[in-house]
Input
Amino acid sequence: MIDGSSSAEIDVPIAAVWAVVEDVERAPEWQGGMRALRAIERDADGRGLVCEVDVDGRVRTLHSTVRFSYEPPTRLSWTQQRGDFKAVRGAWDLVELDTGRTRTRYSIEVDLGRLGFVIRGPLVGLLRAELAGARAAELRRAVEASASSAS
Output
């Protein structure tokens, strides 16, 4: 099992942070290690509901089909429906702080299943860092870039 989390405070209102988080199809543009995300089913608002995801697994590209659950503007969660891992669960949780600031928390749990026989030792640490460690800082950079381009 690999699990991890990261958090950050961003000097941007929660609505602006949520706009980046909920646009899951653009996540590969700012999330390290995510090679591709393709919506294969959409919700009533046109957002990716069931998506195919390709992740850099260091040894090879890992594939998953995940289902997203949107709880605007505070939570985006997902679970793997099928894929190279035995199970995957993750979430973005957003908390509005004072005026114009947002606390973000990214968390993920991955059960490697039979991949655990291939991905061991130092590779587990690299994969943990890839799956969780840098996510909050990556989101902060994406949100700040989005906010500055909107100004």
